[in-house]
Amino acid sequence: QVHLVESGGGSVQSGGSLSLSCVASGDSSERSCIGWFRQSPGKEREGVATIDAAGSTTYADAVKGRFTLARDYAKNTLYLQMVNLQPEDTAMYYCAAHWRGNSILDQTNWSNWGQGTQVTVSS
Fold this sequence. Notes:
The chain is 0% helix and 53% strand. The chain is mainly β. Strands 2, 4, 5, 6, 9, 10 and 11 form a seven-stranded mixed β-sheet that branches. The protein has a four-stranded antiparallel β-sheet with strand order 1-3-8-7, with no helix packed on it. It is globular, with a radius of gyration of 13 Å.
């Protein structure tokens, strides 16, 4: 089992920046793959950015060039640096661990979830 704690959400204006953090603890094999997802009201949870056990990153098309993943193995922490935020980025952002294979940006392929941190971008 993996325990995930997100932080760093907040409210910014369009064009602003935020950095999210996810501290992971528990089964090391289950948190070798870890990522960020987001969910807006009335929408399905969607993949934002993930990193697999080999360190390969995958980004959703909507965030490429604006969001960057970084992983600190010593601190068991995954960061999501977000720049040039837009109102459509407004969502609850969740950290996920334990990818079970197939599409890595498909939330149904992940087993462990944090409680989420809210990101709100105003125009």
